Amino acid sequence: MITSLLKKTEEALQASHRFLEAANRHTEMEPLLKEFVSEVKELSGCEAVGMRILDEEGNIPYEDAVGFPPQFHRIENRLSIRRHECMCINVIKGKADSGLPFYTPGGSFYMNGTSRLLSEFSEAELGKTRNVCNEFGYESVALVPIRLGDRILGLVHVADHRVDAVPLELVEGLERIAMQLGTALQRVQSEDALRRAHDELELRVEKRTAELARANEKLQLEIKDRERAEEELRNSGKELRLLSARLLTAQEDERRRISRELHDSIGQSLSAVKFTVENVLQEIAEEGSGKGVQSLESAIRMVQGAVEEVRRIQKNLRPPTLDDLGLLATISWFCREFEGVYSDIRIEREIDLEEENVPDPLKIVIYRVMQEALNNVAKHSRAEAVRLSLRKNDGRVEMEIRDRGVGFDPKEVFSRNESERGLGLFSMKERTELSGGRFSVVAAEGMGTAILASWPV
Question: Are residues 7 and 149 part of one domain?
């Protein structure tokens, strides 16, 4: 008897020594709990062991566990002291009643025949206990609080399918181990908080240093930008006034052209229709001959010609497809029309965006720049092919129109006398920049021309 008692005492001291070494060896939570779970499993001889740690939200998940089946682990891992009621919650809340046979004075719960004992309880005695351990066939269960003074940090959970696998002396030994674990947890958590504070301080210092460096760099750039902007502002005032005057002149010229086309084409056509219809009415009234039918057919053709002329003028002013079908369909239509008129120029299209990638106010701008650029190709480049590219890249809509024609010297063009410059390039540049975009021309004599425009979206 004495020999057996001494042996048990020695084994308990050895186990306590191993747990103390493990507690002192680890400075991080995960390896600490993993070794404690392994040691408790070996010490207890039970099939399943888990360590639950209470978090700030009131949840008690398994921070480490071994031996429990996956389904059990999924169900039990969701426990919260605010939403659930069970023996685990009672232990971790310190609600253990030491006067009942299933609780120890240290606040642990243990049971060595769950099926038999639960069958003796009434519904009222069972209360809201979930009995998940019993449902999974665990006959022996022990829940031991992990304490640090008066605080409960979590619990040790051991379970076994055998009856009488967790005697009282084992539970009391686990209580001593749990106290060692509580002290180790406090140290690990303190060291972890210290590391986090140190890392956060270093991060804040690095961030602040970087911010100061960026601020200084930005200040230098702003000084240079301001000096450059002041110079550009002085140089651009005259150019802006010139461009405004030319835009107004172009607007009036366009109005005069439309007025002339309406008068010369539509007006004359409609006058001819009026004259023809009047003659037909007179012929029908005086002669009753079939000549009137032929004249009416002639009048219909004239009317049809007038309608087509109206459509042409309308499309030149603003293509209806832009409002009805969108930008991509309008580009396809314009390219077909362009190739129909200028059959010796081939357009290679590369469209790599969706209709919804282009804001509505930007569609007419893109269309007008494309229209002016392709008209310039037809007038000046003598190219056999032109490449039209429209894509979305890094948050911007980018358009490029590149031909392989004769090219020109941009510096020479932009340095010409104001009255000799022509409005095409300036119109495209103005439309692009007024809509928040960037515009540039890359050209050289004998090397072709590239019109580049892009807008943020």
Answer: yes
Q: Determine which of 157-166, 203-212, 248-257, 260-269 has the lowest per-residue pLDDT on average.
A: 248-257
Q: Is the pLDDT assigned to residue 398 strictly greater than 90?
A: yes
Q: Look at residues 126, 161, 188 and tell me which one is the last residue of a structural domain.
A: 188
Q: Fill in the amino acid letter for 330.
A: T
> Whole-angstrom Cα distance, residue 158 to residue 60?
15
Query: What residues make up the domain containing 415?
Result: 321-457
- Could you tell me if residue 204 is inside a domain? no
- For residue 50, what are the β-bridge partners? 65, 157
Euclidean distance between CA atoms 273 and 325, whole angstroms: 34
- 397 vs 130, more confident: 397
The domain that holds 325 is classified in CATH as 3.30.565.10
Say if 231 falls within a structural domain.
no
The whole-number pLDDT of residue 211 equals: 86
For residues 271 and 103, which has the higher predicted lDDT (pLDDT)?
A: 103
Instruction: Please choose, from the candidates 276, 374, 257, 260, the residue with its C-alpha nearest in 3D space to the C-alpha of residue 317.
Output: 257
Instruction: Give the count of domains, the chain.
Output: 2
Residue with tokens 């004239």: 302
DSSP-derived secondary structure for 190-237:
HHHHHHHHHHHHHHHHHHHHHHHHHHHHHHHHHHHHHHHHHHHHHHHH
Per-residue burial over 308-318, b = 16 or more CB atoms within 10 Å of its CB, e = otherwise: ebeeeeebeee
Tell me which DSSP letter residue 451 carries.
E
Domain final residue pick, 188, 216, 239: 188
Q: Does residue 401 have a pLDDT over 70?
A: yes
Bin 420: left if φ > 0, else alpha if -120 < ψ < 50, else beta.
alpha
Residue 229: the pLDDT is 81
User: Whose structure tokens read 């357009």?
Assistant: 347
Could you give the percent of the chain with pLDDT greater than 90? 23
- Determine, yes or no, domain membership for 298: no
